[in-house]
Amino acid sequence: MAEKTEKKQSAYWMLFASFICVLTAGMLFILAFVLLSGGKKEEVLADVKGSAMKETNERMPDDETEDLGNNPETEEKESDTEILKVKEAAGETDDITLGIDVSKFQENIDWGQVADSGVDFAMVRIGYRKSVAGEIVEDECARYNLQEAAANGIKLGAYFFSTAVDEAEAEEEAKWVCELLKGYPITYPVVYNCEGFQEESSRQHGLTTEERTALARVFLDRIEENGYTGMFYAARSELQDNLFWDTDTLQQRYRIWVAQYLTEIYPEVLKPEYDGFYAMWQYTDQGTVPGIKTVVDLNVAYFGYEETAAPLEEGAAQYAEADPETGVIFEETEEQVTSRDVTNLRSTMDQGDNSNVVVKLKNGELCTRTGMGDNGWSRVEYEGQVLYAVSGYLEVVE
Q: What is the pTM of this model?
């Protein structure tokens, strides 16, 4: 009886030991699977570049026309997005690159600081057609931004705000754009931007989806014929389901740049909630970047370039100085002023140091004030020079 009991207990222990071995092996398999999966996830995340740029609650001033990023949809949902590569350019890579888009509303930019912050590319507004009058206007900071961004190693793209109402105007816009850009190293796409057409004041009001799409195609076809990569920009809400554009046609012919601002921004969220094809995402209009005084649009491109493109025509770019009055609205005046005590007359409206002080105006010495800015500065003429002084330090001479 005792022998049988020992044998039975021995069998039980052998069975229990086998169970423990199987359980341990299973747990080790699960642990290995989790570790391998985690490693892959870390590799994917490591491939995505983080942004040194952050958000702010300030808003950019509105343009006299609609402009990039005024109406992106911000609802949140999960979406399986795709990226379509259209007409891949020579030297293009699959790298994720980070960029900004800028116009005169970013005022005078310190492009050295922008480059040091990690920005890879800049989409520069070079001009626009007025939404009512219809004339083409060059962005007053376009040439300076193109020149200085390139000089600091930032790759360039460009965009034009169109309000064309027929093919002739779309052709005119494309020709104007190519003429301005030919002297600059444009590596990233050249973009067709069109907004505000639902406003009754817009000269495009009443155009159909098909008509607007046809004009975009005319513009972008001419851009590509001139050697650039064409890209079409619009908000997700306009592109989705061909609502305001024939998106199905556009995305098969050109790169798509989609705007959508979510609660969380890149890189917390890696893609927009858009189920069409796209190559670039404008993920916020509230970014801050060193060297830029205002908020700025931030973008992620799902492509990059090995090298900077050469200008189509070497030496065609005109040298541009920074305009000290960029971003300031002046009330024009014509009056004699003097200093309340001693006032610095400066070449720019900056008080960081005295390197821009041209002359010290003493009480009793006269100069002519030609404008009072909305930023608290006055524009004055002194001995044939246009200079600037803090308005509160001056007084009118009767």
A: 0.78
- Of 67 and 162, which is predicted with more confidence? 162
CB atoms under 10 Å from CB of 104, counted, come to 19
Give the lowest-confidence range in 18-27, 323-332, 384-393.
Answer: 18-27
Residues 102, 60: contact at Cβ < 8 Å? no
What is the C-alpha separation between 83 and 256, in angstroms, rounded? 9
Q: For the chain, percent helix, then strand, then coil, each to nearest 5?
A: 30, 30, 45
| 95 CB-near residues (< 8 Å, 6+ apart) | 303, 304
Class of domain 330-396: mainly beta
On the question of a cis peptide bond just before residue 185, with omega within 30 degrees of 0, the verdict is no
What is the distance, to the nearest Å, from the Cα of residue 203 to the centroid of all Cα atoms in its chain? 26
> Can you name the residues that pair with 297 across neighbouring β-strands?
101
- Span 54-305: which CATH code? 3.20.20.80
Give the type of residue at 377: W
Residues 234-278 pLDDT 10s: 999 999 999 999 999 999 999 999 999 999 999 999 999 999 999
SS3 category, 172: helix
Q: What are the extents of the domains in the chain? A: 54-305, 330-396
Using the 8-state DSSP alphabet, how is residue 365 labeled?
-
Judge whether 155 and 123 are in contact, CB under 8 Å: no
Higher pLDDT, 75 or 64: 64
Query: Following DSSP, what letter does each residue of 78-119 receive, concatenated?
Result: ----B----SPPTTEE---EEEEEE-GGG-S--HHHHHHTT-
**Measured in Å, how far apart are the chain's first and last C-alpha atoms?**
129
Do the Cβ atoms of 187 and 200 come closer than 8 Å?
no
Residues 6+ apart with CB under 8 A from 32: none
In whole angstroms, what separates CA 242 from the centre of its chain?
Answer: 24
**Does residue 385 sit in helix, strand or coil?**
strand
CA 368 to chain centre: 40
Helical pair 167-181 and 209-225, crossing angle rounded to 10 deg:
30
3-state class (DSSP) for residue 51: coil
The span from the CA of 185 to the CA of 149, in Å, is 10
**Bridge partners of 130?**
none
Whether residue 15 has pLDDT greater than 60: no
* Rounded Cα distance, 230 and 221, in Å: 7
Task: At 222, list the tokens.
Answer: 């001419």
